[in-house]
Each structure stands twice: as structure tokens, then as C-alpha cells.
Amino acid sequence: MGKRATLVVDIQNEYFPGGKLPLLGIEAAAANAARVIEAARDRGERLIHIHHEMPDPDAPIFTPGTAGVEIHESVRPNDGEPVILKNHPNAFLSTDLKERLDQEAIAEVVVVGAMSHMCVEATTRAASDLGYRGTVIHDACATMDLTFNGETAPASHVHATAMAALAFAYASIQSVEEFLA
């Protein structure tokens, strides 16, 4: 088994109550992500924190320089842990994430974060496409209700659909308890 890194994707203030895009179950997901982060620290594995900002300083969400783009205190990086700024759902696109992983001979990525159907899914698919083995900790991820063509899908269905799609061909999907066991 090769080296493993945990990718903490976009657990930012914007997604918590008071933010512009509060997610269903974000507090529980962040608490589970914190457990995964602590386990990675205890094992001496690489942690990479990723946060999203829109490139437009007047963007309505993830606006640069606002409290919303800050990583939530429950999963704040320790000194020396890398933080990657991204402007796209896929954390590999236009960042140095792949180079960082390859420099350390990382073969497997563990993904936690937000949103399940967007940045978690895009990053996990890209990781697989680039040859990394992936594990997504499903209860350390959160999302929101989505509406399309006049029909609303509850967040629980959006999350389940994202996890099912990833499990089909892109990653192992585990609970925090399964992962930590």
C-alpha cells in the first residue's frame, strides 16, 4: 500500500449557519471530518486543506477577503499543514495539488468536505482519473437541497446519489466509524 493523504475540501464558514450557503448536516459532517483529520495527524499522514474562493472580488458567494471563505474553526489547519486555494469545483484544476501528492509519492487520497455533489465529487473523480486510489468518508461530507426543472431533490437524496455514483467506479465509500476501525 502506498502513502495516503487526506484532502479536506471546502469546510468553510460559507456552508455553516450564518453563511450564504448553509448545508444540511454540516456541523455533524465537520465533526466527523475533524475525527478523520486527527487520525491522519496521529498516523503522521499528509493532510492537505483546500478552500474555495471565487476569482471575482464582487462574487455573491465565496467572496475573497470575507469570513465566508475562511476554513471553519472545527477543522482549522495546524501550522505547517498545506492549504490550497482553488477557484473551481475540482481541486486539481489550476492548482498544484497533483504536484504536491506526486512529490510525496501519495497513492491514495481520503476525501472529506463539502459539497458532496460538487467539489467532493469533482475532486474524487479527478483523483481517480489521475490514478489515485480514493476513499470518501460519506458522513464527513454534506450538501444541500437542489432544484432542477421545478423539482426539488432533498439534500439526503443529493448526497446519496453523489456517493452512489462515486462508489460505482471512482472510490470506496466508508463511514467515519468504518474508516477509523
Oligomeric state of the chains in view: single chain
What count of structural domains?
Answer: 1
Determine and state the CATH class: Alpha Beta
What is the topology, as strand order, of the major beta sheet? 3-2-1-4-5-8
Q: Level of helix content?
A: 25-40%
Supply Rg. 15 Å
Strand content: 25-35%
DSSP, total strands: 8
- Please give the CATH architecture: 3-Layer(aba) Sandwich
CATH topology: Rossmann fold
Give the H and E element order. Answer: EHEEHEHEEEHEH
**What structural class is derived from the secondary structure elements?**
alpha/beta
Please summarize the sheet with the most strands: 6 strands, parallel
Contiguous helical run count:
5
Explain how this protein is built.
The chain is an alpha/beta fold and 181 residues long. The chain has one domain (3-180): 3-Layer(aba) Sandwich (Rossmann fold). It is 33% helix and 25% strand. It has helices spanning 26-43, 97-103, 116-129, 155-169, 176-180; strands spanning 3-9, 46-52, 83-86, 106-114, 133-142, 146-148, 151-153, 172-174. The strands form two sheets. Strands 3-2-1-4-5-8 form a six-stranded parallel beta sheet. A two-stranded antiparallel ribbon has the order 6-7. The protein is globular, with a radius of gyration of 15 Å. The model has no long low-confidence stretch (mean pLDDT 97).
